[in-house]
Amino acid sequence: MKPTLDITLAGIRMKNPVMVASGTFGYGPEYAELVDLNKLGAIVVKGISLEPWGGNRTPRMVEVPGGLINAIGLQNPGVKGFTEKYMPFLRNHDIAVIVNIWGKTIEEYTEVAARFDQVEGVHGLEINISCPNVKAGGSSFGTNLDSTAKLVAAVRARTRLPIIPKLAPNVSDIGAFAKVCEDNGADALSLINSFPAMAIDIETRKPVLANVSGGLSGPAIHPIAVKLVFEAAKAVKIPLIALGGITSAKDAIEFMIAGASAVAVGTANFTEPLTSLEVIDGIASYLARHKMKSVQDLVRSIRL
Amino acid sequence: MKPTLDITLAGIRMKNPVMVASGTFGYGPEYAELVDLNKLGAIVVKGISLEPWGGNRTPRMVEVPGGLINAIGLQNPGVKGFTEKYMPFLRNHDIAVIVNIWGKTIEEYTEVAARFDQVEGVHGLEINISCPNVKAGGSSFGTNLDSTAKLVAAVRARTRLPIIPKLAPNVSDIGAFAKVCEDNGADALSLINSFPAMAIDIETRKPVLANVSGGLSGPAIHPIAVKLVFEAAKAVKIPLIALGGITSAKDAIEFMIAGASAVAVGTANFTEPLTSLEVIDGIASYLARHKMKSVQDLVRSIRL
Amino acid sequence: MRIENGTIVSHEPMGPDYRVLILKLPELAPLARPGQFVHLRIAQLHDAVLRRPFSIYKAEGSHLSILYKTVGRGTASMQDLRIDDPVNIVGPLGNGFPLDVPDTATPVLVAGGYGVAPLYFLAKRMKRRGVLFIGGAKAIDILLVDDFLELGWEVQVATDDGSLGVKGLVTAPLDAWLQTSLKGARPEFYACGPNGMLKAVGDRAIKGDWKAWLSLDRHMGCGVGACLACVQKVRLNGQETLARVCKDGPIFEARDVIWED
Amino acid sequence: MRIENGTIVSHEPMGPDYRVLILKLPELAPLARPGQFVHLRIAQLHDAVLRRPFSIYKAEGSHLSILYKTVGRGTASMQDLRIDDPVNIVGPLGNGFPLDVPDTATPVLVAGGYGVAPLYFLAKRMKRRGVLFIGGAKAIDILLVDDFLELGWEVQVATDDGSLGVKGLVTAPLDAWLQTSLKGARPEFYACGPNGMLKAVGDRAIKGDWKAWLSLDRHMGCGVGACLACVQKVRLNGQETLARVCKDGPIFEARDVIWED
Ligand SMILES: Cc1cc2nc3c(=O)[nH]c(=O)nc-3n(C[C@H](O)[C@H](O)[C@H](O)COP(=O)(O)OP(=O)(O)OC[C@H]3O[C@@H](n4cnc5c(N)ncnc54)[C@H](O)[C@@H]3O)c2cc1C
Ligand SMILES: Cc1cc2nc3c(=O)[nH]c(=O)nc-3n(C[C@H](O)[C@H](O)[C@H](O)COP(=O)(O)OP(=O)(O)OC[C@H]3O[C@@H](n4cnc5c(N)ncnc54)[C@H](O)[C@@H]3O)c2cc1C
Ligand SMILES: Cc1cc2nc3c(=O)[nH]c(=O)nc-3n(C[C@H](O)[C@H](O)[C@H](O)COP(=O)(O)O)c2cc1C
Ligand SMILES: Cc1cc2nc3c(=O)[nH]c(=O)nc-3n(C[C@H](O)[C@H](O)[C@H](O)COP(=O)(O)O)c2cc1C
Ligand code: FES
Ligand code: FES
Predict the structure, then answer these.
(1) Interface membership of D45 toward C (CB under 8 Å)
(2) CATH architecture designation of domain A7-56+75-198+216-297
(3) ipTM score for this prediction
(4) Which residues pair with C214 in a beta bridge?
(5) What is the pLDDT of residue D100?
(6) Atom of ligand 3 at shortest range from CA of A265
């Protein structure tokens, strides 16, 4: 018997627990010639703000061993631009659509959330409380328990969509942040965002990125992310979406054993656009090999 | 003219700013057949506690892409064992000796510090307030501002040796931790320790390490460490010793430009025991090429 | 756009600093147009998460070639690629050059270093002939001159050290030619090379009220328009906006580009 | 202990799963003693921070050989090593086997899989001859039998699937031999293989009041005694303590080892 891969996460039905991560897969059309979107569990689109936003100056990305540092700065076409330009395309696909949202103030976050309540085809909102690239924005929220609580509660009050705060990795006690999100109405959690990081060109003695620093993603951060997921899973009951350096089914399965109900592929889309599909297949064959009936048997199955 | 490499850091004179990191170079004799200790700026010995300590069960180490996770658990022969067995050897070399110390309580830390005050040939104490591998111990200190302050002040009161708190990387605001150490009498700071991390064997669904989790070190963490050093340098005036994923002179120079006065080579000693010597040579030729007179011209020389 | 596992058919040096890699890519190669590029995964560089972009230098039947210079760790480890090794390619990417030169115009190609690669592909697919201006640091950076001559093109060379052609920037022979040889013809420019060169060509085109198609070189993440790493400020319908060099480019008309440095 | 850049002299398969790598290491090779190991850096595995430990299989003049099995990503990428490639080696490491077998004792070697490599080196350097018991999963895991016969050793084989020698664990022929062939001689054991096998050999030695020198296999960090990754609980002068397998071992006498699993 073929193991079942489908899950319902925070009320969102997905064919399988494999998603593509915000900022690494555009808004859908970009990779569609290479990756059949209908095969994915969900797409999390690049972070959307109330108004269009230009992001940082270039250079915005630099490769480092085992990863990359990005400081895109959340460039996006705004709620209206995104909805008009990309939602028709996404609605035409059989895929759960999770919109990643951000704001510079709590009001902006809540307003964005409220607007997406009216948009057909949006299945959930991932709240980026943790982007390391916008100075005004997310970072301060995501590393402070009080503002995390306030932000999540405020967004909760303005939308009926499932909300999924995306946690910052650079905190000492991820469990506390997970708990405060759960207590304030989060339906699920995404963890983690990229790590504040920096590269310097030693010849010019200038930061490589125009924004000085950015966020580290890729295989380099995977073992740290696994630990954070493991800790968060101990603190909360709501489902976790894990991401950070997934390049193979093995990495994804590690996350699920540690406590994640679903996973998202980020940087690896750039390296190998077919990674998400390979992860789906790899999970399926792992389940078959281990005689597990459903992918849910993997979740939190760690043996201590 | 040959550029000068020697520095005086927290009153400790060193031939050059390149040290070897605690836990990765034993107590001196282990690598001495391969690396001429007299060429190094300083050795930071493996963490010492009041009494001998057995550490964690094996497996204690696992390789991951771009790094390794270790959970040695601070095994060590205690103050007396270390002093008797290794100090004679170290005193026989022309190298600054920095002893990394830890305890399970503030009293243990201060007692260890006081004892080393009496030991000839010890040039400074690195205070490990941040080891991710001892549950009872350091971790809780290093991620809490109050206990960091208390611990540093308490150690300060019991020793005349230069004290160098070694900061935890998993905090949101490293500047605040740096400042509280400076305010409580630290002479310099080491940053950073390894990152809490974890690997799971997906076939057995068990953690790979007997201790469940450990600390990630190696090239993977370098860009995060550079950012932390850059932030700490903005917060304090005392000198910084930077470490995290140094494999080449380039990595070391990046740290110094970002704000470090000295650097330490850790995991790379395993990969390539001659790394520290190569870093020294590489810094010297960089300085010559850039027509810098002294290695101190590099420190905090970032151009923003 | 395809993702295809190619195999190496040939990998030969072109002078001391450059190499030509010929790949068998039966699905992808036939889709290639001049000015487009491919994104190559260097599998043996385990710790690299990004592919490397290279202009398409030739596409004939099921073979696709790139011409590359070794500049960093990716291109350095590409040197170890041997015949029959597999190479994973995403492409063809980007918009490519417009191929329809107006009948009244003379195509003028301006190349810096490996920038000549896509221009050669363009010259081969263009119905008209014209003139190539090629510049580089030294004689060894001046590539494909004979190939252009064989296609019936005029070639003018400049090198920084004067070791081949005139000494100086490629704009020197270009300006001379524009002054003396135009004779009423309208040039249409196609340029690929460093930013300074592109800007210089663009300035001349704007001044003369000619068109200049510039191939921009930006560090890239995804190569397909998803990550927004490669953006360039442009003017579109009078509006300032950020274009993705990988997807909306790499070819832009000079008037659309807003240079910031 | 030295660190030396060796070059590959030969790299040949030994059956389907094993390979022999011969390195030119003029400084290091002459220092090697049986039971010691080398720490090999796999340079082409860019993202690996750890070296890989391998027992010394042969050391003759300036040549040092290892015999390895492909089990993971490091050994897999070692397969790509070609003649003349450089390989950086730290070694010889560890204590090695005692070479002075008492005159009254018969050396009994017990090997599992590639564990036969250091035992072959030992047999070549030992003045006395004895008997080798070798076990493995399948016939292809039974290596060097002819080489031992050539040295004048007796060889007894066991495989899990019975495809060579007796079917079952290597302890089966060993026990039979101990019962029937000892004839008053005292065996002295030298064993290298999986933990279960080492423990079984040690148990027999302790029971018979013989010595058993066991070569332990532990995941290693530094290989030189600095990192404390590889520790093994042992009894030293009656005291329990943690020995470093890389430095204080890898060879331990059976009585000293405290098995915990
Ligand atoms: C559209 C386009 C077409 C190109 N066509 C060619 C070509 O035909 N022949 C050729 O030799 N080169 C070409 N390049 C440049 C080529 O991509 C770089 O030389 C190559 O990526 C360098 O990789 P590296 O690992 O050796 O260098 P490193 O400096 O080690 O690379 C580090 C990172 O910077 C990026 N990078 C470095 N230099 C460049 C650059 N000049 N442009 C873009 N990214 C860069 C790399 O892709 C990588 O992500 C082209 C670039 C673009 C954007
Ligand atoms: C003293 C000693 C002598 C050895 N002699 C030989 C020999 O002669 N021939 C041979 O084929 N193998 C030998 N081994 C085992 C050999 O070191 C491993 O097979 C090898 O390290 C596996 O590397 P990998 O990257 O292919 O495996 P991976 O599983 O990908 O390696 C991951 C990590 O685990 C470590 N590791 C994995 N398996 C082992 C193992 N069995 N022992 C120690 N570390 C391991 C690796 O070194 C690496 O750090 C010896 C090990 C020790 C400790
Ligand atoms: C280029 C780039 C852009 C990103 N943009 C966003 C974003 O807009 N919003 C967000 O929440 N996360 C963003 N991220 C973070 C990723 O979604 C993900 O959390 C992170 O990259 C870790 O996963 P990975 O290691 O698999 O890439 C971005 C990451 C990258 C590399
Ligand atoms: C095996 C191992 C043991 C370590 N033991 C200690 C220790 O006892 N005390 C300490 O402060 N840091 C210890 N560290 C941390 C290192 O000193 C260093 O902070 C960390 O490894 C990051 O540097 P790297 O990436 O260069 O290794 C240890 C690291 C490793 C890999
Ligand atoms: S490289 Fe990703 S958008 Fe251009
Ligand atoms: S491997 Fe480091 S002490 Fe043995």
Answers:
(1) yes
(2) Alpha-Beta Barrel (3.20)
(3) 0.96
(4) C191, C252
(5) 85
(6) 26
